[in-house]
Amino acid sequence: MTTRCNFLLRRTLLACVAAAWLPLAAMAQAAPQVQFQTSLGDFVVEVYPDKAPKTVENFLRYVKDKQYDGTIFHRVIPNFMVQGGGYNAKYDEKITRPPVPLEALNGLKHETGTIAMARTNDPNSAKAQFFVNVKENPFLNAKGSSDGYTVFGRVVSGMETIQKIKEVPTGSGGPFPTDVPKTPVVINSATLVK
């Protein structure tokens, strides 16, 4: 009888430990989220360090350093994407850290609402600027290890704010001949919320 009681006690304890551990494991794997407060409303993005570890680390460091606070969406193309995070309202370019390597071949696609890193023609030139796809843009998906643009997350709430941004009237502004909102769309703050 004692052996049977010990067996049942051990089994019950293991079940309790497993039950307590599962929620902790789920919390540990929860994707970080960043809330953007803009002059046209708020939106929240969820980022995926398991898919684009260097890109997400870089992005979250900029968020923690308040790099995006006071920057604008300086490039808005209604049937393509909205881009920001690099300039203030006077079109002064923000100082950035060195670029991160391209992580575009990670299985994430340029779908409506995904967030990706902007870059130059050099595949390994992404620094701080990002864009949100306002439609599917498969031509931006990686076909090999040195092309495409790194998708690293998605908008999980506030897509209506992105829709407002994409519909603002645009023209020339600062050093840009086109696609600049005539009334600046300002990122008041970007904060890690989860």
Characterize the structure shown.
The chain is of the alpha+beta class. It has two domains: 1-30; 33-192, Cyclophilin, CATH 2.40.100. Helices cover 24% and strands 31% of the residues. The chain has three helices and ten strands. It has an eight-stranded antiparallel beta barrel with strand order 1-2-7-5-6-4-3-10. A hairpin with a 3-residue loop joins strand 3 (71-77) and strand 4 (81-88). It is globular, with a radius of gyration of 21 Å. The termini are far apart. Residues 21-28 have low confidence and may be disordered.
Listing every helix as H and every strand as E from the N terminus to the C terminus, the arrangement reads HEEHEEEEEHEEE
Beta-strand percentage range? 25-35%
- Supply the number of helical segments: 3
Just give the CATH class of the largest domain. Answer: Mainly Beta
Q: Into how many domains do the coordinates divide?
A: 2
- Round the Cα radius of gyration to an integer and report it: 21 Å
